[in-house]
Amino acid sequence: MNKVYIQSAAHISAQKPLSEEWMDNPVVYEGDSVKSIDLNYKEYLAPNVARRMGKLLKRALVCARMAMKRAKVEMPDAIITATGLGCIENTEHFLDAMTREGETLLNPTPFMQSTHNTIGSSIALDIKCHGYNSHYSQKHTSFDCALQDAFIQFQNGKIQTALLNAHDESSSVFDSILQHIDCWHFENGGFKGETAISMALGNQPTPETLCRMEDMMICYRPTMPVLQKELQKLLERNGLTIHDLDAVFIGVNGNAENDNVYYACTETLFPNLPLARYKHLFGEHFTMSGIGFYVVATCLQQGRLPEHLLLAKENPAKQVKCIVLYNHSENRDHSMILLSNKK
Amino acid sequence: MGQRIVVSGIGIVSALGLGKESTFRALCEGKSGISSIQYLQTEHAHFPVGEVKLSNAEMMDMLGIKSDTPHTRTSLMGMIAAQEALEDAHISQNERIALANGITVGGMDKTEQYYLDFLSNHSCDEYIAIHDCGACSEMIADHFGELFNQLQTISTACSSAANAIMAGAMLIKNGRADMVLAGGTECITKFHLNGFNTLMILDNEPCKPFDANRHGINLGEGAAYVVLETKEHFLTRNAELILAGSQQKLKPLAVLSGYANTCDAFHQTASSPDGEGAYRAMKQALETAHLQPSDIDYINAHGTGTNNNDNSESAAISRVFGDKIPAVSSTKGFTGHATSAAGGLETVISILALQHNFMPPNLNFSTKPDDLPFTPLTAGRQASPPLQHVLSNSFGFGGNNTSLLFSKYGDDE
Fold first, then answer.
1. Closest-CA distance of chain B to residue A251, Å
2. Of the candidates A202, A229, A255, which is a domain's last residue?
3. What's the CATH number where B7 sits?
4. Does the interface ipTM go beyond 0.85?
5. pTM metric for this prediction
6. CB-side exposure of B158: number of CA atoms within 13 Å?
7. Residue A207 within a domain
C-alpha cells in the first residue's frame, strides 16, 4: 500500500498566521470567542481575484497557495475540502436579507458563495485544477472524512499529490445564536475559534516533509468494546502495538460534556500514555481536527512535544516518533489518526 | 481491475411519488411530477416545482416518528428512501453498514422558517443543532438504530449524491466498509429557490432541457439511495439468507462499473463553453470501467434546462462520443432539479432503465437548437438490443462534475 506524507501546511487561525511560532510562543486568549489573526490579503491576492470574496475564501486561497508553494507542488491531483458550515457569512447575509426584506431584490453574490463547495472550487479555479474535487461536511469529523478520502486515493494509487483543506468561520449571527442556546460553552481557557488550513500531501517523502500518516479510522456511535477492537485493528494492520505510541492528542476544548468523553475513553484505550491537546491554542470549530492534524505533524517534524501542549505535566513524553490523534464529534463519530516520523 | 461493486438495493422519493414502482410507472407513462407550488411558503408561487407530494406531518406519520420530534424535510425524505433501499437489498438489523450522504442546504427549511425566533426567543431552539448537513445525515442514520457504523456527508452542490455514491464505492474498494448506503437528499427551500431566482435561471414554465427555447430550471426535491457492496459480499450474504430459509436466490440490480469526479475550474456558477470538466468526468468514468464510448447505450444527462448547462454538457458529450452519440435524455422534466439529491434520483432512474431496458423520454423537447449535436429521446423507448451500459451525469456549482457508469449484471456472472 502506498504511504502518505504531509509535505507542508499553512494556517490562518488564532495563532500567528502561516507560522509555527505557537510551538514556543503561543498567543494566549481570555474570553470564549476568538477571531483568527487575519493577514493583509491585499498583499497576497490581486484585486480581481479577491473581488467579492468573503474572509473565509480569502483565507482559503492564501492558505492553499502557501501550502503548495512550501511543498513545491504546482498542480495537485486532488483538492479535498472539509467545512462544517461553509462560508456562513454569505449564507447569513442572504438569509437575513430574504427574511427581513422579502424575496425580491436579493443580491446573487452571497448565494453563489454560500454553498459549501465554493471553497474548494475557488481554490481549483485559482490554479485551474481539473482534478478530483470534493467536500465533506460531517460536523466535527468533517476533516477526518476528507482526510480519509485522500488517504484511500493515495492507497489505491489514484493520486500522487493532494491539497487538503479545512475551513470554518465565525460570524456575528452564528456567534449570537450559539450564545443564545448556550452551546459551545467553554471553561478553563477554552474558546470558539475559526479554522483555515491547507496541507499538501504526497506519496513520496521530500526534504520538506513534516511526517508520515500511517492510517486512520472513523466509527459512528461505537460502544467501548467496538472502539477497542477498532484501535487494535488499526495498530495491528500497521505492525504496531500500543507500546509504540508516544502520545495521544485529543480534542479537549474546555467544555465538560465534550472533555469527559475523552477522559473516559483514553483511560480505557490508552492507559499510561501522555495526553496532549491543541484546542486551547486554536479554539473549537467544526473542522478544528484539521488543525490538530497539523499540530501533531509539526511535533513529529520537530521531534518534540512542547510542555504547554501536555495535559499532565508529570507525565511528559519522551522524544516523539509515533502519535495518535483522537477526536470525537459529540460522542457520536469517533476518529483516530496514526502519524509517525518515518520516512 | 479489482472487485466489482454491485448495487443490491435502490430507494427513491421524488415528485414522481414514493418508491421505485411508482417512479418507473411515471417514467413509462411520460407523466411529469412537476406542478405548482403546494408545500413551500414563498412569494414566488408562480414557479413550477417538483415537490414530493407529502407534508412533513404525513412523512412523519409514515415513518412512525412522533409529531413533536425536531426534524427537517430533507432528513424525512432521506429516511423514507433509505428504508426502501435497505429493504430492497434485504439488509437485516444485525448488519453494519456505512452511510455516504449528499446534502447541501441541510436543515435550511427550518432555519429560514425560524430564523428570527433563533435570534430573539427560545421557542425553536431545538432546530438550531439540526441545521447543518452532518446533523441531517445523523438523523437519517439514527432512525435505523445501530445499523450505521460510519457516516460521511458530501456537499458538492448539485453533484453531491453522485459524489457520495463514488465515495461509497471507494470505501468498499479500500476495505473500509462491507456495504454502503449511498445517495443524497434535499428538500426545496425558499433559500435556494431565491438563490436560483437571483441568478435568473428558473423557468416560469415546465423546464425544457436541451430545447432551443429553454429558459432554465424547475427546482425539485427528493431523496434516493443505492446499497453498494462487492459482488462477493453480495453472493455470500445471499447464500446465508437462502440457508436461513428467508430468501430466494437474488441477483444484483446493476454493477457500478465506473465513476469519475473532476473540476471544470472555469467559473463559480457557470460551466465552460467546451464542457472541459464534464468531458473529463465522462472520459475518466469510461476509463475506470475499461469501456469505450461506443459501449454506452444511454446517457441520463444532467440536462437542467439552463442555457449554459445544456450547451456545455452537449459540447462535452460531442467531444467524448464524436458522431456516434448514444440515446440521451434528461429526466429533469419529470422530477425537477433536485439539487443535491439529483445524482441519487438519476442513479435510480438509470438502474431502472437497465433493469427494464427502457429509456425514459426527455420531456418538453420540441425544437432542436441548430448547434445541438444530438436529438434527445422525445418519447420513452424500449431498448433493443437490451441496455448494457448507462452513463449518468451530475454537475454542480463550482464545476464539481461527476459521471457514474452503471452496467447490467450478467446472467452468467
1. 19
2. A202
3. 3.40.47.10
4. yes
5. 0.98
6. 29
7. no
